[in-house]
């Protein structure tokens, strides 16, 4: 049907049908809303329901939360994940912004392109692939950086993956796979800052450092917040790294290192879906609180 | 003129050193991975870590890898391709129109949908994997293609990326003028917004492909049958059969370390290829806006 014909049909139908017809926007989002309900809202509601009921389906109040929190493995896992998150988020923010700003300032276009490419390539690896590769990198007997590994962490693989080293090791793995993508994104955001703004700062006497701190970084705020939120969400999910390391560590690292591993143990080893759901909800609440803070401070809805 | 100053020169050298150092950090493990796949098990330990092995050893490793459990690695790779391709297609089909509508049209419930999208995007995937497993178990769909493809198609990050792109890079006036010129809503989307959205389509497709390809936890829980594993889950089964990392398997181990290296290399190859193919789009998509003609 041609557009004018549609417009004519619309005006003939008058106000009655306009009240009945959903807005065009509703049609466009409908497919997404179906997936959102099926794999976002329904499972979340189900997890809440499980967390507040017992195995027989009766309302249990906070019993599941209390029981799991009193598990001696729970507090240890909170400490592990918390330490890792602090290390990871700080390292990520500082290094990604510094590298993006430095690459952006390079004079030669080819060097900018090459570096972006080189930094980004490991982004292809995540999950089990990246962990496996780093198991080899951290094994002094085969590693190309065995000197560094021996100096920092020990001369045998088992010594290297000692629990105390893990927050650092997970930070390195996560930075190696994830930072390049964020550097490319920050680089793109830096490119979208109008040239006149930077020029004006230069005319006003700002050096490269002050331009970065006072002009460029504030204009990247939305993207920085975005990076922090997604990285936080990913960080609290810590699962595959400790799971594989515990499998390869000759028992040095247990399978209850992270909170999600603990939730997995509750569900699949202890057959305690209610306890598992309670831990999942704990994680959710923490992530939501931090995210809310970021959203409030970062003006993520400025585009509205 | 600027390089004359010695302090400036020092800063430049330092900056170059930092950038080169990080380049090495990012690239060295990949180089090692390619080289190590060409070595014999003994050579992996005895030779210089950054020396090449031989074609013969590579072919040997390949033959062993392909004969591992009667060629199960080929099946895992095929599964990974199937799961990732299907879910990327579904993700694009639902995410691009949704992000467009959230950014550039007004409808009841829009703001609520935005907030819910942001919230769900932040939820740890594990918080959902278990309940989704129960949901599929109730429907009798566990251990099916749908049980991993459908949840992976739900990609709020893609919707949010599209929303950000449309709301920052495509001026609403452009669409208004299309509507004034007589375009219906679907024509405005298809003829005006979609051509401008090429960069973000490439971006969402790439991110969803990488995420799905590398997804570990969902298939780990959803697919108990080894024949249905994607490569990522299969790798852990190989890890458990490698003597370096699991002394229990002992001398008659099924997998030697160079074969595990080769399997890891194989598991990342498709993502690397897609990356090389779409790199131009990725960078252009993040930088160019519709307003900059």
UniProtKB/TrEMBL annotation, chain A:
* Protein's UniProt keywords contain ATP-binding: no
Tell me which domain of life the UniProt entry assigns to the organism this sequence originates from.
Answer: Bacteria
Where in or outside the cell? Cell membrane
Residue ranges occupied by any ABC transmembrane type-1 domain in the UniProt entry: 83-294
**PROSITE patterns given in the database record:** ABC_TM1
Asked whether the keyword Membrane is assigned, the reply is yes
Q: Give the matching InterPro entries.
A: ABC_transporter_permease, MetI-like, MetI-like_sf
The membrane-topology field of this record reads:
Multi-pass membrane protein
Q: Which CDD domains match?
A: TM_PBP2
Q: Which GO terms describe its cellular component?
A: plasma membrane
**Residues that span the membrane, as ranges:** 26-48, 85-105, 117-137, 168-190, 223-240, 275-296
Name the family the entry cites.
Belongs to the binding-protein-dependent transport system permease family.
Q: What is this protein called?
A: Multiple sugar transport system permease protein
Q: Which organism is it from?
A: Nonomuraea rubra
Automatic annotation (TrEMBL), chain B:
Descriptive protein name:
Multiple sugar transport system permease protein
Keywords for this protein? Cell membrane, Membrane, Sugar transport, Transmembrane, Transmembrane helix, Transport
List residues of the ABC transmembrane type-1 domain: 77-278
Provide the topology term for how it sits in the membrane. Answer: Multi-pass membrane protein
The membrane-spanning stretches of this chain are 81-105, 112-134, 146-166, 200-222, 260-277
| GO (cellular component) term, any one | plasma membrane
Describe the family membership recorded for this protein in Swiss-Prot or TrEMBL: Belongs to the binding-protein-dependent transport system permease family.
User: Could you tell me which InterPro entries the record lists for this protein?
Assistant: MetI-like (IPR000515), MetI-like_sf (IPR035906)
GO biological-process terms attached to the record: transmembrane transport
**Entry-linked Pfam families:** BPD_transp_1
Question: Where in the cell does this protein reside?
Answer: Cell membrane
Q: What CDD domains does the annotation carry? A: TM_PBP2
């Amino acid at each position: 049907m041609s557009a004018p014909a549609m417009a004519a049909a619309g005006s003939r139908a008058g106000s009655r049908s306009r009240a009945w017809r959903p807005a065009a926007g509703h049609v466009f989002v409908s497919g997404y809303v179906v997936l959102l309900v099926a794999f976002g809202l329904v499972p979340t509601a189900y997890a809440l329901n499980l967390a507040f009921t017992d195995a027989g389906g009766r309302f249990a109040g906070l019993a599941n939360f209390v029981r799991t929190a009193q598990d001696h493995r729970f507090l240890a896992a909170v400490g592990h994940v918390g330490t890792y998150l602090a290390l990871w988020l700080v390292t990520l923010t500082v290094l990604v912004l510094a590298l993006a700003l430095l690459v952006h300032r390079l004079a030669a276009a080819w060097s900018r392109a090459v570096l972006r490419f080189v930094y980004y390539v490991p982004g292809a690896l995540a999950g089990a692939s990246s962990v496996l590769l780093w198991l080899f990198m951290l094994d002094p007997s085969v590693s190309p950086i065995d000197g560094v590994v021996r100096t920092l962490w020990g001369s045998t693989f088992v010594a290297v993956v000692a629990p105390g080293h893990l927050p650092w090791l997970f930070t390195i793995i996560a930075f190696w796979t994830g930072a390049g993508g964020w550097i490319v994104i920050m680089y793109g955001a830096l490119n979208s800052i109008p040239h006149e703004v930077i020029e004006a700062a230069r005319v006003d006497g700002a050096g490269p450092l002050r331009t970065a701190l006072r002009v460029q970084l504030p204009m990247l705020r939305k993207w920085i917040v975005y990076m922090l939120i997604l990285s936080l969400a990913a960080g609290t999910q810590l699962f595959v790294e400790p799971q594989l390391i515990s499998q390869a560590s000759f028992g040095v690292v247990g399978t209850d290192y992270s909170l999600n591993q603990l939730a997995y143990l509750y569900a699949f080893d202890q057959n305690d879906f209610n306890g598992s759901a309670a831990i999942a909800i704990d994680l959710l609440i923490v992530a939501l609180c931090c995210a809310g803070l970021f959203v409030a401070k970062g003006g993520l809805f400025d585009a509205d | 003129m600027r390089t004359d100053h010695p302090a400036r020169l020092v800063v430049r050298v330092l900056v170059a050193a930092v950038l080169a150092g990080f380049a090495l950090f990012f690239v060295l493990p990949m180089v090692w991975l390619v080289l190590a796949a060409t070595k014999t098990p003994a050579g992996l330990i005895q030779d210089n870590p950054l020396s090449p092995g031989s074609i013969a050893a590579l072919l040997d490793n390949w033959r062993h890898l392909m004969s591992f459990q009667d060629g199960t690695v080929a099946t895992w790779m095929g599964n990974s391709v199937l799961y990732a391709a299907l879910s990327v297609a579904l993700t694009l089909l639902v995410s691009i129109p949704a992000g467009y509508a959230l950014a550039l049209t007004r409808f009841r419930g829009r703001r609520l949908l935005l907030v819910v999208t942001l919230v769900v995007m932040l939820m740890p995937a594990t918080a959902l994997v278990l309940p989704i497993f129960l949901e599929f178990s109730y429907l009798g769909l566990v251990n099916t293609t749908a049980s991993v493809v459908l949840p992976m198609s739900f990609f709020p990050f893609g919707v949010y990326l599209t929303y950000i792109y449309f709301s920052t890079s495509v001026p609403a006036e452009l669409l208004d003028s299309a509507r004034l010129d007589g375009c219906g809503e679907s024509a405005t989307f298809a003829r005006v917004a979609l051509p401008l959205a090429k960069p973000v389509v490439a971006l969402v497709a790439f991110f969803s492909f990488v995420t799905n390809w590398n997804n570990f936890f969902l298939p780990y829980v959803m697919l108990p049958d080894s024949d249905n594993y994607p490569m990522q889950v299969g790798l852990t089964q190989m890890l458990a059969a490698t003597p370096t990392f699991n002394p229990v398997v002992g001398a008659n181990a099924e997998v030697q370390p160079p074969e595990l290296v080769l399997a890891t290399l194989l598991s990342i190859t498709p993502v690397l290829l897609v990356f090389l193919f779409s790199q131009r789009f990725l960078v252009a998509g993040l930088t160019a806006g519709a307003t900059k003609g």
